[in-house]
Amino acid sequence: MELIKKGPDPFWLEIESKALKQRQKVLEKLAVQLLTENPRPLKVPKAKTKRKPYFEEGDILAVKLEDEYGLVFVSMVEQSPRKLEYHLACTRLLQTKKPTIDDFLTSQISCKMDNTKFALDTDCWFNHKNLGQLLDNIEKIGQVKLRPFSLWLLAPAQNLEDIYEEITRDKGSFGLRFIETYKLVDDIFSV
Question: How far apart are CA 21 and CA 135, in angstroms?
């Protein structure tokens, strides 16, 4: 307010003769604005709560389908401020009883070699919302540390049928090769 009371600097006369009066008007208007209460205070944006992932990379999940169980593992979790996505690699296991960690290790998965690391040919990616709607049918049965791999096939998914289709994909028509899942595993953790 002290600067406003002093008035405009004589420098404004050097610019133009009317500039000093115009500057004085602007300063007076600013003083009025500063002294009056703001009728519309600024809205403080709500802090977005960071979504906590349902699962972590390496989690082994039993998926309850209609009358049987499938087995998948979380190959990647992509988290950014705008999205949270899960990549689920599907093994070829379908059975009537709930699978165990041993079933996971003895199951097969569609995979190739990419130089020195594995390249998974099976993947269903879900966004956080769609996977959240399936949580009643998914149960974590273990966790593993995986050897280095890359995802070669990325298939968007929204429901259990997408997982079932990925598990039962025809080997011959897609030229798939299978390896035992234990070859991807570096370490097993207790749940």
Answer: 70
